[in-house]
């Protein structure tokens, strides 16, 4: 493996943009303690330029995302970069326990981890691994709720609706 010559080379090898049914996904990988890990997934609009994966993990993330888009029962198995506060990690672990085809409210998760619904919503909005950590399964007691810090209809809410439909909730 050759050493990148510049930040642009490093970013090019660790970042890709792939197609998704609702837009594009930006995928960041990074070496952490000598291991290549997924460091972030971003939802991007369809006018974002596609960039092919250039490392094995990015290719694997793309493969697993495509498998999930074909079958919502697909279970991701990707090394994730440890990230987030203790509270965020509790929320994210709780969302991973919500079964496919079901939802939980912000209040239910807050009660379970002894927090507040707004703090749960903030942690969900800070989730660096959407799809893998399914914060889209967390809804408001009055309805759909927000998504990715967006409380009104828009790009992220449309993605949440697509994901919940894909998983058979809506």
What does the model show?
The chain is globular and about 40 Å long. The termini are far apart. A three-stranded antiparallel β-sheet has the order 1-2-3. Strands 4-5 form a two-stranded parallel ribbon. The protein is 37% helix and 18% strand. With 170 residues, it is an alpha+beta fold. The protein has six helices and five strands; from the N terminus they run H-E-E-E-H-H-E-H-H-E-H. Mean pLDDT is 90; it is low at 1-7. It has helices at 7-14, 56-70, 86-96, 106-113, 117-125, 155-166; strands at residues 15-20, 23-32, 35-44, 104-105, 138-139. Strand 1 (15-20) and strand 2 (23-32) form a beta hairpin.
User: In terms of per-residue confidence, which ranges show pLDDT below 50 for 5 or more consecutive residues?
Assistant: 1-7
For the residues shown, what is the average pLDDT?
90
Give the total of beta strands: 5
SSE run: HEEEHHEHHEH
Number of helices: 6
Straight-line N-to-C gap: 46 Å
Arrangement of strands in the largest sheet: 1-2-3
Q: What level of helicity do the residues show?
A: 25-40%
Q: Report the β-strand fraction as a percent range.
A: 15-25%
Return the structural class: alpha+beta
Radius of gyration: 16 Å
- Major sheet characteristics: 3 strands, antiparallel
Q: Using the alpha-carbon principal axes, give the shape.
A: globular
């Amino acid at each position: 493996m050759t050493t990148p010559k510049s930040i642009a080379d490093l970013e090019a090898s660790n970042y890709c943009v792939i197609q998704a049914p609702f837009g594009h996904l930006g995928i960041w990988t990074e070496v952490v303690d000598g291991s290549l890990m997924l460091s972030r997934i971003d939802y991007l609009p369809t006018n974002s330029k596609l960039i092919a994966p250039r490392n094995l993990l990015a290719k694997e993330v793309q493969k697993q995302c495509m498998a999930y888009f074909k079958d919502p029962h697909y279970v991701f198995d990707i090394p994730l970069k440890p990230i987030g506060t203790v509270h965020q990690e509790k929320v994210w672990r709780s969302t991973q326990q919500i079964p496919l085809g079901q939802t939980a409210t912000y209040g239910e998760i807050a009660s379970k981890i002894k927090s507040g619904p707004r703090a749960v919503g903030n942690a969900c909005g800070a989730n660096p691994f959407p799809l893998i950590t399914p914060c889209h399964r967390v809804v408001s007691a009055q309805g759909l709720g927000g998504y990715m810090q967006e409380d009104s209809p828009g790009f992220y809410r449309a993605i949440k609706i697509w994901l919940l439909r894909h998983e058979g909730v809506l």
